[in-house]
Design a protein that fits this description.
four-stranded mixed β-sheet; globular; alpha+beta; about 80 residues
Length: about 80
């Protein structure tokens, strides 16, 4: 969860093997800058504790940006013998 200079909140979904770039993220939502919100701000803002906040099924409406590469993935077999 992030906050822009405008005080608008955003959630970004990126591939697990990529690093989150705050400057690119800010540009993608037309913000001058964004920053990650502090863990203690998460519960009052979202209703979820740190580690339990998912971009799918949020209790409150938050603009969510999904990187295209995070959508296009191949499923793998995770069967354990």
């Amino acid at each position: 969860m992030t906050a822009g200079k405008s005080k608008q909140h955003y959630v970004f979904v990126i591939p697990v093997n990529k690093e989150f770039d705050l400057k690119k993220a800010a540009k993608s939502v037309n913000e001058k800058a964004i920053e990650m919100i502090r863990a203690k701000e998460l519960l009052p803002l979202t209703g979820y504790i740190y580690g339990g906040c998912s971009p799918a099924g949020m209790k409150k409406v938050v603009k969510t940006v999904i990187v295209e590469k995070a959508i296009r993935f191949e499923l793998c077999d995770l069967t354990v013998d």
